[in-house]
Amino acid sequence: MDKPDLEFDDIEPIRQTSLPTASEVARGRALAKLGLDIAWYNARLEEIRDTNGSPCCQTCNRPETQKLRGKPRDLVVSKSQQLICQSCANNNYKAQQKANVEKRYDGSQETLERFWEENRTTLPEAKRIIWEERSEEVECLVARIKEHIKGSTWSQEHQDDLPAAIREFADEFTKHGLLETAVVLEWKERNESTLSTTSAESVYLNYGYQTAFPAYVANSFLAFVEKHLNIQPTEPSSLYRIGGILRVLDGKPYTVTSCLLKCSTYGCKSTSSYENEPEKYQPSQWFCPECRAAIIVKANSAFSKLADKRFVETQRDAAARAPIRTRDEWGRPIISEDRIFGERGPYVQ
């Protein structure tokens, strides 16, 4: 006769001692702080068991769902002497911590919101209205984009709004760039120089107005759109990624087949387009026709000077290697090139 297969979890471990376990000792200490004991705990467990025999939380009226080593965790005794589950105990702890923080805060501490309110009172009325309208416009676009990223019911009902939101985001990025909202982490280390600038980060740090699109939302939205359009980015730059997305929306291939070339001459603003072709590489430097002609003229002038200098050096070297003449063709001694001595003294030619 075959023996039935027994799972390891079906076998209850047999304790070889009557000493209490660590969890029982900890429970006894927690109960002693409240003036209770193990007998009270066991009696209360029997009172709150449901039809399945599981003890239920006295706050949410549900059995414990969290487990420890495969078994439900024990119920926790609250300060009101109720047996509650781990989830309710965590909620009570967070509520107590929040109440402690609010009790310590008497309203005199400096906060970021109070810092923004004080700085906004120093702004001119016209500038404050402009920044408020601008911030509201950016926040509305951010809210629309976040709805599309989450895939909410609103985004499913307004799927036609996604291409428009992409184009508005691209236009926003081109005109105003991105806002790094992490600058508020250093608001306590601010200085007077940041108040005089009008950059998006400075305005957000000092007044709390979002005058540009937040960078963290932009990165999430670009990844969402690329996944939605089933395209693989080829450049890490956000500008190239946005350009490729707009090309796909226009029905063109994502890969850019042409690029913009700028004249490499300092100060020259001439540009031209370059078409990428297979087995053809983009030139590292490009010069416009006018600058190239000027470069050729300078090069020819430099080469002619080098050739003249080289010719002079060649003649000098040839003269240095030639033998020294001591007599002319008639045998007369040569003192110098213009004086020749004859039998009766110097002879002048």
How would you describe this protein?
The structure is a single chain. With 349 residues, this protein is mainly alpha-helical. The chain has three domains: 18-104, no CATH class; 114-256, no CATH class; 290-342, no CATH class. It has eleven helices and eleven strands. The strands form five sheets. Strands 9-10-11 form a three-stranded antiparallel β-sheet, with no helix packed on it. It has a two-stranded antiparallel sheet with strand order 1-2.
Oligomer description: single chain
SS summary, helix count: 11
> What fraction of residues sit in β-strands?
5-15%
* E-strand count: 11
Ranges with pLDDT <50 over ≥5 residues?
Answer: none
CA-CA gap between termini? 146 Å
Shape: elongated
Q: Report the structural category.
A: mainly alpha
Strand order of the largest sheet: 9-10-11
Q: Which sequence of SSEs, written as H and E, runs from N to C?
A: HHEEEEHHHHHEHEHHEEHEEE
Domain module tally: 3
Give me the Rg, rounded: 44 Å
Helix content: 40-55%
Mean pLDDT: 79
Largest sheet: number of strands, sense, barrel closure = 3 strands, antiparallel
Name some characteristics of this structure.
349 residues; mainly alpha; three-stranded antiparallel β-sheet; two-stranded antiparallel ribbon; elongated
